[in-house]
Structure formats: C-alpha cells, structure tokens
Amino acid sequence: MNEHTPATLELDDIQRGVLSPRPTPYAATYILFRVDDRAQGRELMRRLSVAVTSAADSMSPLGDTWVSVALTYQGLKALGVPQASLDTFAWEFRQGMAARAAALGDAGDSGPARWEPPLGTPDAHVLLVALAPDSARLQAAVDSARPAYEALPGVTAIWRQDCHALPTETEPFGYRDGVSHPAIQGSGIAGSNPLEAPLKAGEFVLGYPDELGGVQAPQPDVLGRNGTYVAFRKLHQRVALFRRYLKDNATGPEDEELLAAKIMGRWRSGAPLALCPLHDDPDLGADAARRNAFLYQQNDPAGFTTPGGCHIRRANPRDAAVAGVPRLHRMIRRGTVYGPPLPDGVLDDDGADRGLMFAFIGAHLGRQFEFVQTEWLNDGVFFGAGPARDPLTGSTDGSGDFTIPRRPVRRRLCGLPRFVVTRGGEYGFMPSLTALRWLGDLTDRA
C-alpha cells in the first residue's frame, strides 16, 4: 500500500463504540463482570459477538445506540488465552492501570487503595458498555445484551455505573462536553476540527499503519486486528470546591466566568477563547461546525488568549511546537456524566458522588493516554512552565499554581486543590467482532 493511500477500514469488524462519537443527549451504563468459569466466559464472548454493534451499523433500528465490550488483561487470562499471545499485548495493558498509578499521578485520595471496588482488582474481567440517546433506548440496548450473560452462573456482574446527560448537556463543572473528536482516515466520520488533517487509522485501530508507518497488533492477527485499547476512568468531581475556588479568586461574577474559561480554554458554553477571547458566545458554543475550528501556533503561540497551561491546550496542543509531535499523542476522548447535578449557586459539598466516566481510546496506550497524562497534564516542562500541572484535572495537592499570561502583568492562581479524584480505572482491550468469536471458540490444549 502506498504510504499516502488511506487504509480501508473493515468497519463491519470494528466495534462501533471505537469510532462513533457519543450522541447528544445520551444515557449510558457500564457493567463489569468477573469470569469464574472459563467455558462460560467463552460462551459470553460468543453471545456478545452477536450483541455488539459494528462500526458499519449506522442504520440500527435503535438509532444512535450501541453495545461495546472490553476485556482486561486478567479477563483474557480468565478465558484461557495462551500466554504466548498475552505477551504480545502492550506492556501497560499487561500491568493494568492500578499498577501504573504512580506514573499516572493517582496518589493520595486518587490512589488505588481508595478506589471503588472492584475497580483495579484482579476480579475485573469484562466491561460491557451500552449507550443510547435516551433511557428508553438504553434499556432496549441493555435488554438486547442481557441474554449474553444471563443464565451463565460462571459469569457474575460485580459492578455497575449508570450515566446520563445533565439537563444542561454539560459535565458537572458546567462546561459543554464532547466538543473535540479527531478525524480518522477510512472511518467515514468527520472530525470536529476542519483544520486538523485526518489521522492514520493505525493510531486508533490495531492492524493498520499509524502516523509513523508502523503496524501494531497483538497476535495472532485474528485476535489483534481491528481491535484497540481503551483506558476507562471513574473521575469524581469536587464541584462545590471548584465553585468556591473561583469565587475566592475572582473580583466578581464576570471575573469568575473569565477564570473558569482561562482554566479550561473554553467558556462554559463550549465557545473557545481562541475564537472569542473577551466574552462568551453561546451561539458559537452550540455550533458544532465552528466551535472547534482553530489552531494555536499562528495567532497565539505565547498563550495570551488561550493559556498554555489550560486544560484543552494541554490535552491537545494541536499545531503547537511542543515536546513530542501532537499527532502522535492524539486520542479519542469520551465522557459520560454520573451522579446528580449540584444545584446552581451551592458552594458546599452535599456528599453526593458525581463526575465523569471517561474513556480514552487509542492503539498506543503508552504514547497516547499515558504520555498525555504524565507529560502534558501532570507536568508543564513541555511549554516552559516547570512542574505546573493541569489546573482542572491535574494531580495537584493544594500547593500548585496556574499562570495566565497577561500584559503588562501576568495573573497567577495559587494553592490549587485537587478538583478531580480518580475513583477507579481499568485498561481494556476492545476486540473486533471476529476476535470475539475467536475468543468464544478457544479450547484448552491437553
């Protein structure tokens, strides 16, 4: 294949949950299973190969509704995948997210010892995700998958997290979510930024050339090809703490909103500072065709409009000349809200658990999810800010700061507390539909 010829993705073999942006609004549920009986675990794979939606199925009777499945390393072991094959998976995946906690900044309140069980334990084997535009269609999707695991006593549901869209279609801190999605060659799905060239399919789907020309896939090929890796994280958001910090560090309500925009890189409506630096523009924030059409390097290299340390610029530096080529660290990010909203104006924690179930999808756990988490979100060296961490999601401890470039004098926020706490997570492998059938047909050698 010519290196300039886009790969033809086998969409009918790729899980739809890999490539499709989530609908807006949405409802979702995550169900985690433990496999105690190998034969029944394999039967689960056979049944799921029918229930899981493919990326080619864009005309489902249920509309923007799909079921996806991922397996942990321990889950693949529980199914009896040969060790020679297991050894070909990414080493970060083989270790598991809990073992990578120190590198990811999951310490203190975010440490695995405080995670919500059974997340991060050897009991986490298979994660089933169902997503739909509303609760009725979500229930239909769950019902369609239910026969896959019911009547299998050797497969036990051990954890469930229900998610939903807030009435405001924002995440708990109040920002419009789901704004950015990369264009992927061969996917047939347009990216959210018309200024970003489509990325090679191998950045997100195993078995295809990536941006460096390499092809990565666990072996045998029937298992690895058309699959991908996913990092799931349950992130608790300290909404009252965030609101109080803004209030305590602002001169008034308008300044609170400006600080919130500088911390995120967007106004709460979704309108980016890059396109409206002085005030919010809700019409722009609601316009999916315009709100993500911007770059940084030509118009704002020093970050006077969009601070270099803000959340969206750290997570996706776009065209900026930073440590590492940004295209090599691009990911698909998806967040689904859980828990009740904190009423407007409340500045005290009500004790409710609320936040995001986050999924980061890509073919390279190390240079995508882990690199962004460790080098961009939890460090500031790449843009000249020393050890400064992401002011919104970084693993701060109350001693961090955030600098807002400004003429003639910069503005600095100090004493940043930890606004987002990791409640658990797993590294998963999302097999192709063919691989699900292969896993179902595994046999034990005598």
TrEMBL record:
Keyword Oxidoreductase found: yes
Keywords linked to the UniProt accession: Iron, Metal-binding, Oxidoreductase, Peroxidase
Gene Ontology MF terms: peroxidase activity
InterPro entries recorded: Dimeric_a/b-barrel, DyP_N, Dyp_peroxidase
Coiled-coil positions: none
PROSITE patterns: DYP_PEROXIDASE
A Pfam family per the record: DyP_N
Cofactor(s), by name: heme b
UniProt-listed SUPFAM superfamilies: Dimeric alpha+beta barrel (SSF54909)
Domain (DyP dimeric alpha+beta barrel) ranges: 27-143
UniProt xrefs under PANTHER family: BLR4509 PROTEIN (PTHR30521:SF5), DEFERROCHELATASE/PEROXIDASE (PTHR30521)
Family: Belongs to the DyP-type peroxidase family.
Protein name, per record: Peroxidase
Annotated organism of origin: Streptosporangium pseudovulgare
